[in-house]
Amino acid sequence: MKVTDHIEAANGKTLFSFEIIPPKKGRSIQELYDNIDPLMEFKPPFIDVTTSREEYIYIDRDGLLDKKLTRMRPGTLGICASIKHKYEVDTVPHVLCGGFTKEETEYLLVDCQYLGIDNVMALRGDAMKEQKYFEPTNGGHQYAKELVEQIQQMNCGNFLHEVVETDNCADFCIGVAGYPEKHIEAPSITSDLKRLKEKVDAGADYVVTQMFFDNHKYFEFCDLARQYGINVPIVPGIKPLAIKKHLQLLPQVFKIDLPEDLVDAVEACKDSKAARQVGVEWAIQQSKELMQAGVPVLHFYSMGKSSNIKAIAEAIF
Fold this sequence. Notes:
Layout: H1 3-9, E1 15-20, H2 30-36, E2 46-49, E3 55-61, E4 64-70, H3 76-87, E5 90-96, H4 102-114, E6 119-123, H5 144-155, E7 173-178, H6 189-202, E8 206-209, H7 215-227, E9 234-235, E10 237-238, H8 246-254, H9 260-267, H10 272-292, E11 297-301, H11 307-316
Parallel strand pairs: 1-2, 1-11, 2-5, 5-6, 6-7, 7-8, 8-9, 10-11
Antiparallel strand pairs: 3-4
């Protein structure tokens, strides 16, 4: 079932969803299940599964370092299929430009269709650690808009090298990212909204925002998006602050602002356990206000841990 169909069927009720990260190679999927299990009581209609792009590692071979390209967290599609089967819930695999050719993307989408996966999240992805700026993979897409276009073309039966006449076309519901405080590389919020409008015009069905800690940022973003003719559902992405170091890490990595009240409360904490509780309480208040405003879904970035997400969900659902 499509994400947009779930939203429509909810008839104005705010839904609960969350995002998980595949375990590193060699780790058991049971660890993932152990963190999903406590959240299933809140009946998420869909669960997002991230995709990690490739990265370089260095292997010592007789005193010489051999540089190799690898993926530390593969298995997105397998995890989606496993979760879909185990929990009877829809899954949303993240599909990236970075690290994938157009052909590899097509193969992934074909596999998604075979598995009955109706939704995909189309993202450009981040630059590799060795890159100052994002560089497209040879034979891949540079922008998320191009990725959306490829998925939409497949929905019409148009593959990369041929048009397939079939009564069994794909019908993916396409999600894309939005940035209430603008993308890190965008010169302005206006420019960023223009890029978002291009993705929606290319076929995106809904938007999930980057994390934010000030709801006014989200409300302002939605108002501006509507002014630009972006009329698809805009789902707020929520990440509860979990450790004191997040005060420095989150603004540095994601280029977002933290409200002074939140900063003061975390700085007053004696340890990360206390900071985690502050993060939970802040997210609860955020979520309640967003629900009162009628947001379609509250989408939580779990980072593979569920205890704080469970505490928030218990307070609001």
